[in-house]
Amino acid sequence: MAYEGILLGMGNPLLDISSVVDEEFLQSVLRSGWWLRVLRKGKGIEMKYFGE
What we know:
Strand content: under 5%
Distance between the termini: 54 Å
Organism: Vitis vinifera (Grape)
Oligomer: single chain
Shape: elongated
Helix content: 25-40%
Protein name: Adenosine kinase
Largest sheet: none
């Protein structure tokens, strides 16, 4: 059965967002470590930051 004009999306839209950034911005985010705190918060994930 086909439906015209209908779009079905599945999954987590936040995981599908991407952006082009320069190397300086990327390095500043990695150095800040905020993303590691987000991963650990409430999920019991124990990770180490293997940065520069």
